[in-house]
Amino acid sequence: MPTIKAYNFRARKLSKISAIFFLLLASASTPCSAEWTESNKTNTFTLYIDDTTIQIKGDTTFVWVMYDFSKPQPEGYQSVKALLEFKCALNRYRFRMFTAFESPMGEGEAGQPKSATTWDIPISNSPLQSISKRICKN
Fold first, then answer.
1. 51-81: buried (b, 16+ CB within 10 Å) or exposed (e) per residue?
2. Are 84 and 54 a contacting pair, CB within 8 Å?
3. What is the tens place of the pLDDT at every residue in 77-107?
4. CATH code for the domain of 28
5. What is residue 137's predicted lDDT score, i.e. its pLDDT?
6. Is the Cβ–Cβ distance between 7 and 100 less than 8 Å?
7. What is the mean pLDDT of the chain?
8. C-beta of residue 106 within 8 angstroms of C-beta of residue 79
9. CA–CA gap between residue 74 and residue 8 (Å, rounded)
10. In the beta sheet, which residues pair with residue 56?
11. Does 2 map to a domain?
12. Distances (CA, A) of 65 to 20, 33, 39, 52
């Protein structure tokens, strides 16, 4: 998962414009009521997937996931919602969009949405490999 250094909720608040932008973006791209299903659990976080959001567009598959951390992270967030983009045939993924939240399960104040441009290979036996196998049907 990309590092999230820009989220220091104690030091900065979202501007009104950023908050409005995020609300519009979130309402347009995430389901009204997510159906989070636990996918993997580690000592650090629980990874949830919303199977109802799986979309296949050409050779690309998209799905929403949520990382729920067992304790607040040093940057001030405790959960992250992410839109993952998979190139199943190439065994690659990237974080198309992700947003950190100050409270568990995507609640509380949200940071500004970010995205990753680099493609990665899921690490063997990792939570992301589990998600990849689940949605790519490898």
1. eebeeeeeeebbbbbbbbbeeebebbbbbbb
2. no
3. 999 999 999 999 999 999 999 999 999 999 9
4. 2.40.128.710
5. 81
6. yes
7. 84
8. yes
9. 8
10. 61
11. no
12. 22, 13, 9, 11
Cα 114 from Cα 69, distance rounded (Å): 18
Domain for residue 79, yes or no?
A: yes
Q: What is the pTM of this model?
A: 0.77
Q: Contact at 8 Å (CB) between 25 and 113?
A: yes
Which range of residues forms the domain containing residue 61? 16-136
Residue type, 110: A
| Cα–Cα dist 99/103, whole Å | 12
Q: Phi and psi for 21 in degrees, rounded to 5? A: -60, -45
Residue in the structure block whose two tokens are 């992700």:
98
Name which of 109, 37, 40 is nearest 77 in CA terms: 109
Q: Which two tokens stand for residue 90?
A: 């190439």
The single residue listed with the structure tokens 């998962």 is 1
Token duo for residue 125: 């036996």
Rg (CA), the chain: 15
63 domain-assigned: yes
Task: Provide the domain count of the chain.
Answer: 1
Q: Is residue 90 part of a domain?
A: yes
Does the pLDDT value for residue 49 go beyond 90?
yes
